[in-house]
Amino acid sequence: MLDGPGGRRALNAIVAVMVLGFLGVPGAAGQVSSTLAGNPMSGERLFAERGCTRCHAIWGVGGVLGPDLGEVGLGRSLMQLAGMFWNHTPRMIETVRSHGFEWSTFTESDLADVISYIYYVKLYDEPGDPTLGARWMKEKRCSECHSLGGAGGQVGPALDGYAQYVAPIPLAEGMWNHGRDMRAMQASRLVPVPRFYGNEIADIQEYIRRASRLRGRTIVLLPPPDPARGERLFRSKGCASCHGASGRGTSFGPDLRMAIQQLRVSEITGELWNHSARMTEAMEERGIAYPVFERGELTDVVAYLYYLRFGETEGDARAGKAIFTIKGCSGCHDATSGSTVGPDLSRSEVVGTQMGVTTAMWNHAPSMYEAVRQAGIPWPLFQGNEMRDLAAYLQELRSRHALEGR
Ligand code: HEC
Ligand code: HEC
Ligand code: HEC
Ligand code: HEC
Questions:
Q1: Residues 128, 130, 131, 134: is their CA dihedral positive or negative?
Q2: Which one of 64, 158, 308, 396 is least enclosed by Cβ atoms within 10 Å?
Q3: What residues make up the domain containing 357?
């Protein structure tokens, strides 16, 4: 029963609820817009249909022959993940052959969807540690002002109500919305403004859930994060006026793509708080109204911030040219050297986009694999931005050829 796609999905949903308290793994969020590369919801479907779950788990659910894709590749961009995806073709080719399966090919948008899904599942962090949470609340002196489970100060509101959420984002949302008055109170009572590192907010949330006296709790599950709505909120709340379109930064606010690189969701919410005092000042100086979030809105903004790195695609064609030689591609694909083993890529129709290059390589992998084996050269592997730069070079090669051909 659990082996069918439906059972798998149900289990996935349970895992996600345990993990971050959203309403199921991506499942219900079909609304991701096309401005974000790939659609994780279709990716989830393809991931099951193409048999990836036979070998790969997401957060412990699924096959065990390959690595758990909920854990690998955190914070990697689309093209970086595409490189990782390519690296495992030999393994896949061998498996497919030994089982007599067909090589599954992808269209460009299908592959983008699958990779987008692998990226999306990492939005779900691990739950916090309540013991550590108790310690952070004491060290950061939250309890001097807030009561929880009947104990603690009465200066600020009791925090018990937050126990109805599994995810830590509503807590971060409450702090952001009340940030100004909370900081003023902290200043007047000589309590240092708290800063959060790593998973601390998630730890505190988990502790609140343990220690709260909230009775008759109905657990509130948030809808799955929707980065496309987050993108709209990022503009409508005024964030873009300082951080620029796509978070690229302006002279009034830093480039967020760099700042939040490799961060998990609870870390992003921590950074948001850590910088909120300076941001409040900057908003006052520029006459921008302090944005308050309705319940759930911050989840989507954070999901959007999380996706900022994903679509990053500019490549360095010059570095790509070197990679083309170093990885041995030129040995089979360089028309000028007279090699005819592989097609002349400057005339190839498929290298017009970055995902096009990756998709074509994946689809041709089995024949390339044969050619590479016969030539006795190692299978080319990609690290960091190599795939992106290589694709930029091939794109340039093609457009140069198109110009010359006119
Ligand atoms: C027959 C088992 C098997 C199947 C089916 C399979 N994989 Fe893999 N995959 C592996 C193994 C094993 C690895 C470890 C790397 C290696 O040995 O090449 C891996 C590695 C990966 C990696 C890189 C992870 C890392 O840590 O670098 C990605 C991404 C990936 N697989 C995605 C997929 C996708 C998407 C599908 C479905 C289209 C898929 N895999 C199907 C076995 C499989
Ligand atoms: C010096 C006292 C003080 C300390 C220390 C303090 N807070 Fe607060 N906090 C307040 C006050 C006062 C408010 C209400 C501000 C307002 O009315 O806008 C508040 C509001 C909040 C809210 C929004 C509450 C709601 O439900 O509306 C949250 C969440 C919160 N604090 C969490 C924390 C956490 C977590 C810590 C420790 C890391 C902390 N606070 C430390 C005084 C404090
Ligand atoms: C008035 C300009 C302004 C607005 C509006 C603004 N920010 Fe900022 N933001 C800044 C500045 C300046 C910093 C750096 C603050 C510092 O150094 O502590 C910053 C820092 C950040 C950081 C931390 C970056 C890092 O280096 O770790 C995040 C995340 C962030 N902002 C997100 C947002 C979001 C989300 C919004 C909208 C709700 C927003 N900002 C609105 C000016 C702004
Ligand atoms: C040992 C020879 C060999 C090496 C090395 C090699 N390829 Fe290939 N490549 C081929 C062959 C043969 C084909 C055609 C496969 C087919 O028709 O299915 C091909 C096909 C392709 C295609 C699809 C072209 C199209 O128009 O459909 C791309 C893109 C590609 N290779 C890129 C690369 C890159 C990038 C490298 C270096 C990382 C590389 N190849 C290394 C032999 C090789």
A1: positive
A2: 64
A3: 317-404
> How far apart are the C-alpha atoms of 248 and 308, rounded to whole Å?
9
pTM exceeds cut of 0.70 = yes
- Other CB atoms within a 10 A radius of the CB of residue 225 amount to 28
288 residue type, one letter: I
Burial of 68 (0-12, 13-18, 19+ CB in 10 A): middle
Residue after which a domain boundary falls, among 280, 307, 334: 307
CA 243 to ligand 3 centroid distance, Å: 7
Residues 177 and 301 in one domain: yes
Closest residue CA from atom 10 of ligand 4 = 342
User: Cβ(333) to ligand 2 under 6 A?
Assistant: no
Regarding the beta carbon of 30 and ligand 1, being less than 6 Å apart is answered: no
Tokens 């040219």, located at residue? 321
For residues 285 and 371, membership in a common domain is answered with no
What DSSP character marks residue 56? -
Pocket test for ligand 1, best of 71, 79, 91 (most atoms within 8 A of CB): 91
For the stretch 325-361, pLDDT in tens is 999 888 888 766 666 778 888 888 888 888 889 999 9
Check whether residue 137 and residue 116 sit in a common domain: no
Report the number of distinct structural domains present in the chain: 3
Same domain (yes/no): 243, 226: yes
83 with 193, same domain: the answer is no
> Do 298 and 198 contact (CB within 8 A), yes or no?
no
